[in-house]
Amino acid sequence: MIRRKSSQFQGLKMQSELEQHYELRREPKKDLRSLDESATRMGTGVHTESGTVASVNADEDPAANLFPPPLPQPRICIWKYLDIHSMHRLEKTANVEEMREVLAELLGLGSPAQSLRDAITLDLFSHALIFCRQQGFSLEQTSTACALLQDLHKACIATPLGNVEECYRYFTSVLFCHGIRRPPFSINLFKEEQLLALADYVVNTYFRHFKLYKYVFTPQVRLDLSLTYVGLQAPKLWPKDETGQVSVLRAYIKTQMNKELEQLQQLVEERLKASEERLGSKLTALERPLQLPPGKGKNKTK
To answer: Residue 28 pLDDT > 70, yes or no?
Structure first.
């Protein structure tokens, strides 16, 4: 009951956001042009800033960029990756192995024995298809569910940095684009129970292993840190040609080390001598004969 109320609340919230977005679309063209120009200026500013921070090979290495790329806008994704002919081919498969072979061909995946990433991707979508069959989804719903999972996976592996909250917000927004009738921005493809079942499945399978997918499909990030102190002069390095100054410095360090060693040796000898004197005094005290008090001896003789 609580989950149903929360889903209804999220649906009402999504409806209000879509209505606000529809009202913005109806504003005059001048405002839209000004917004586009400001967005363009902001985009160029962010691009130059990230370009200065990132290294020169940012285009070659996606891990060189310090900022995660922006996520795409949520849109309707029916028949996006698997069209009606592909779904009919998958529907005609008799067993799981045949379905996996057809799915690998449709997604352009290689042999699972040769590529670990292709094997993980194939397992991800094959289990999603099995879930859709168990839930009784139609061909349109199954294609949309696979497209949702594919877009979520692309958003996850777009950056090696942590973006689980952004990906979850993106997934929920795309999910509601297929649960509310607000054309052309959203359609009511799934019922409320189907939306809840699909959301629970993605949370329990993909988001529960979010870091594992990111570890496998993204490059490793290494941080090389260098510190510069303001107001301090940089240390001067000895040139290679000045061998005389290096020898003088080496001799000075050697003499200082010898002095420190001599002082340490003298301190150790003094402590050893003091401990020997204490040990000798204790031994002499133990070697003396035990003398009884005079009073006790007289009482015994009487």
So the answer is: no
Whether omega before 184 lies within 30 degrees of 0, making that bond cis, reads yes
Q: In angstroms, what CA-CA distances link 114 with 117, 119, 152?
A: 9, 8, 25
Q: Rounded to two decimals, what is the model's pTM?
A: 0.54
Kindly report, residue by residue over 202-239, the tens digit of the pLDDT: 999 999 999 999 999 998 888 788 888 888 777 676 66
Read off the pLDDT of residues 268-298 as tens digits, 9 standing for 90 and up: 999 989 888 888 888 888 777 655 556 655 5
Which residues, including other chains, have CB under 8 Å from residue 76's CB and lie 6 or more apart?
177, 178, 184, 185, 186, 187
Whole-angstrom Cα distance, residue 108 to residue 105? 5
Query: How far apart (Å, rounded) are the C-alpha atoms in residues 61 and 35?
Result: 32
As a whole number of angstroms, the distance between CA 37 and CA 201 comes to: 41
DSSP helix/strand/coil, 1: coil
Of 43, 49, 50, give the one whose Cα is nearest residue 159: 50
Query: How far apart are alpha carbons 116 and 96 in whole angstroms?
Result: 19
Task: Name the one residue in this structure whose structure tokens are 């990111």.
Answer: 214
* DSSP structural state of residue 79: T
Q: List beta partners, residue 182.
A: 186
66 contacts 50 by C-beta, under 8 angstroms = yes
Higher-confidence residue of 210 and 16: namely 210
CA proximity to 74, closest of 12, 166, 1, 161: 166
Q: Per-residue DSSP letters for 138-164?
A: -HHHHHHHHHHHHHHHHHHTT-SS--H
